[in-house]
């Protein structure tokens, strides 16, 4: 038994037994549930290999359903096809097919028998080898054409050669050579690049199988106006499909864009405000938004408003009025203004510290502590910039650290090391060796710095001044 033969139905045959190579869907019959739809007319739509269809009369009043395999009239002999549509919708399909005369509508003989199916499979098995050999014959004759596909009739008495050519081709000699080689009746049919892509199949730039190879039956003309209505860039590389023609999907949404475009204001309209004039920069057709610029050729002071607001401004300009701005309300303008979350951020926080210590290690700067300094029991505040692991220093230790070294810098009030300090007499100014008046110890150093100082050896401690006794400066 043939692998394509179906035994699930009572007739033993179905559309899978034909072994067709197309995966295309058919016209959806939305009148199938209407009572008496199939009996309303005897016209039947029959599909053959790939996209080829024919329309026939059911003169024998056969009970045909979608998917039945039938033997139909051909010239010469008969052909095998699959019923794809019955009922009232066949009249609409005939109008789309543009049949020129009623002679193109032939009749259905019978439902296909097993003998018819055997001849059909034998004829289909020769199609590929016939196509390869016919291409070699056309190349040998030097014809500028490409044979894309070959289709044998159901009884094997006729072969249809589908070819593609840019110019007119004289293939009279080719027909003679093909008839002598294959011993069948030859029919040449020219197809376009769209039909070729539908027969070969492939994957489009959208990642899905080509529309012409899955569900499309009729090819409508596509122009660049469809791209203009949708504001698509007129780039030939992006607008062209696998067949090197304009994509058929450009016509899918063009009607919606045309309807939405009627609600937009005119493109040449100039919106006048009290500040300046605005020109149309770009539009979002489906969203109904218009972006205007204060410069006719550049994007300057862009303002995005709705189409209704643009029409209101145009109506105000016609009456001689000029609004303050294109926006309806200044508050709404501030609300729509985007918020920059990184406006006050410091970008230098990402930079790593490049300073290194003497030992070659990177310096770790302690973080600043903003907490209030805690005072110790003596009332002195500890040092805030003390490194980690070190106890904070009190006020006395800080003063000792800042106190100058006595061994390196001699004291002006003291004489040479080891000599006793002379106390100035009352009523006389102390004199230095150079003749200048000597400053007293109380005037030279602060009292807090002398509290922690130890008296030198051999020096007489200076007696404290009694209360009420005038200083030497006052006596002078």
Automatic annotation (TrEMBL):
Protein name in UniProt: Regulatory iron-sulfur-containing complex subunit RicT
Bias (Low complexity): 407-462
Pfam family, one: PSP1
Region of interest (Disordered), residue spans: 321-340, 345-476
Compositionally skewed regions (Polar residues) per UniProt: 372-383, 465-476
Biased composition (Basic and acidic residues): 328-339
Record's compositionally biased regions (Basic residues): 352-365
PROSITE patterns hit by this protein: PSP1_C
InterPro entries assigned to the protein according to its UniProt record, in alphabetical order: PSP1-like (IPR047767), PSP1_C (IPR007557)
Naturally occurring in which organism (per UniProt): Hallella faecis
Residue span, PSP1 C-terminal domain: 106-191
């Amino acid at each position: 038994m043939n692998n394509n033969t179906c035994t699930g139905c009572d007739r033993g045959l179905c559309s899978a037994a034909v072994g067709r190579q197309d995966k295309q869907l058919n016209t959806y019959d939305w009148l199938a549930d209407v009572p008496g739809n199939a009996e309303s007319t005897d016209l039947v739509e029959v599909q053959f290999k790939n996209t080829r269809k024919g329309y026939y009369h059911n003169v024998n009043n056969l009970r045909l359903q979608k998917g039945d395999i039938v033997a139909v009239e051909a010239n010469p002999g008969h052909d095998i096809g699959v019923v794809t549509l019955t009922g009232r919708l066949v009249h609409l399909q005939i109008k789309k097919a543009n049949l020129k005369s009623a002679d193109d509508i032939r009749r259905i003989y019978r439902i296909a028998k097993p003998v018819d199916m055997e001849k059909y499979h034998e004829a289909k098995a020769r199609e590929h080898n016939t196509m390869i050999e016919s291409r070699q014959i056309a190349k040998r004759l030097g014809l500028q054409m490409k044979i894309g596909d070959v289709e044998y009739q159901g009884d094997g008495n006729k072969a249809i050669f589908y070819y593609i050519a840019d110019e007119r081709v004289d293939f009279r000699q080719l027909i003679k050579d093909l008839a002598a080689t294959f011993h069948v009746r030859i029919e040449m049919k020219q197809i376009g690049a769209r039909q070729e892509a539908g027969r070969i199949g492939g994957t489009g730039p959208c990642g899905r199988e080509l529309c012409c190879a899955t569900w499309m039956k009729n090819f409508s003309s596509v122009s660049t106006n469809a791209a203009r209505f949708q504001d698509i860039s007129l780039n030939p590389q992006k607008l062209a499909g696998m067949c090197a023609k304009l994509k058929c999907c450009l016509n899918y949404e063009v009607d919606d864009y045309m309807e939405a475009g009627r609600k937009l204001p005119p493109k040449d309209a100039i919106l006048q405000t009290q500040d300046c004039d605005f020109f149309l920069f770009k539009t979002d057709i489906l969203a109904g938004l218009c972006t205007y610029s204060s410069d006719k050729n550049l994007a300057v002071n862009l303002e995005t408003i709705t189409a209704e607001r643009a029409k209101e401004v145009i109506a105000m300009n016609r009456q001689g009025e000029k609004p303050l701005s294109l926006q309806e309300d200044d508050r709404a303008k501030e609300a729509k203004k985007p918020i920059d979350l990184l406006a006050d951020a410091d970008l230098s926080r990402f930079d790593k510290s490049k300073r290194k210590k003497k030992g070659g290690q990177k310096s770790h700067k302690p973080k600043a502590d903003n907490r209030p300094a805690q005072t110790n029991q003596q009332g002195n505040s500890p040092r805030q910039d003390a490194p980690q692991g070190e106890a904070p220093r009190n006020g006395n230790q800080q003063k000792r650290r800042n106190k100058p070294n006595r061994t390196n810098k001699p004291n002006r009030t003291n004489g040479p090391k080891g000599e006793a300090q002379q106390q100035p007499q009352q009523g006389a100014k102390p004199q230095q060796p150079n003749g200048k008046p000597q400053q007293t110890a109380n005037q030279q150093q602060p009292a807090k710095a002398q509290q922690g100082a130890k008296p030198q050896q051999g020096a007489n401690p200076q007696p404290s001044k009694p209360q009420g006794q005038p200083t030497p400066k006052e006596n002078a």
